[in-house]
Specification:
It is a single chain. This protein is an alpha/beta fold and 256 residues long. The chain folds into two domains: 170 residues, MoaB/Mog-like domain (Molybdenum Cofactor Biosythetic Enzyme, Chain A), CATH 3.40.980.10; 77 residues, 2-Layer Sandwich (Alpha-Beta Plaits), CATH 3.30.70.600. The protein has nine helices and 14 strands. The strands form four sheets. The protein has a six-stranded mixed beta sheet, with helices on both faces. Strands 12-13-11-14 form a four-stranded antiparallel beta sheet, covered by helices on one side. A two-stranded parallel sheet has the order 1-10. Helix 8 runs antiparallel to helix 9. The longest helix has 17 residues. It is elongated, with a radius of gyration of 22 Å.
Length: 256
């Protein structure tokens, strides 16, 4: 089982979704939620930005380089398959000025998986990636993802991606896990907006406070979510929020 190194520092990441099918609405992205949650819970890595771009080489190159400079890690999804519009591997190679070539280990993995007779050009293409890249092994369909610099290139198919993520741990440094607490209130946002603003100012940069209204079956409610990487600060914020709720005589549905 892959292990992960630890640090007490905050580690951040960005996700780059690549694919015309996402932008056209033909395919609904299911990877952002999974990757973000998996990184936080398992690795203490916080996703700070998500971008969705088309299968255009210049856009891939620009965004990969831009995000790799701004964040500790970048995770791309899509565009590493066998078809003509799968250009992520080539584009990432050019972004890092690395030769785009067959990875011998990936080539042998795929040849063994498909068999020599069925190992056609499209399948061979999935073994091409930047020279010097490290493989991210794929227990589902054999075709590996890869890592170059701080960029991890993963498939777009959610079931395959999910089967591969544990193999990322070899390359990652674990940061501080973000913990959260949720209060579901029977009220409207305007009733608590001023109080939440004051509370946020008291816990600035220590606790992130989010307010999310809901309208279901004619009933109005607000979910107040507290997030922090410091459990002591989170508990302190919770106590102050509970005081606000009691002072305003707001019904508390649930506290997670």
């Amino acid at each position: 089982m892959p292990t992960i190194k630890k640090t007490k520092k905050k580690i951040n990441a960005a996700i780059l979704i690549i694919g015309n099918e996402i932008l056209s609405g033909r395919t609904q992205d299911a990877n952002v939620l999974f990757i973000s949650n998996w990184l936080n819970v398992n690795c203490g890595i916080s996703v700070q930005e998500v971008r969705i771009i088309p299968d255009i080489e210049k856009k891939i190159i620009y965004n990969v380089l831009d995000l790799s400079k701004k964040f500790n890690y970048v995770f791309t999804t899509g565009g590493i398959g066998p078809t003509h519009d799968d250009i992520t591997s080539l584009s990432v190679s050019r972004a890092f000025k690395a030769k785009y070539k067959f990875n011998n280990e990936a080539y042998e993995i795929l040849k063994k998986y498909y068999g020599v007779k069925n190992f056609n050009n499209g399948r061979k293409k999935m073994a091409k990636m930047p020279a010097g890249a490290s493989l991210i092994y794929n227990p589902s369909s054999a075709a590996p993802g890869f890592k170059i610099s701080n960029v991890f290139c993963l498939p777009g198919v959610p079931s395959i991606l999910k089967s591969m993520v544990n193999n990322l741990k070899t390359f990652l440094i674990e940061g501080l896990v973000t913990i959260s607490s949720t209060f579901n209130l029977k009220t409207v946002e305007s009733n608590i907006a001023y109080d939440l603003e004051n509370l946020q100012n008291k816990f600035l940069k220590k606790v992130d406070i989010g307010s999310y209204p809901s309208f279901k079956l004619g009933k109005v409610s607000v979910a107040v979510v507290l997030r922090s990487q410091n459990e002591k600060q989170l508990k302190s914020c919770e106590k102050k929020l509970i005081k606000i709720i009691k002072a305003k005589k707001i019904k508390l549905f649930k506290n997670n």
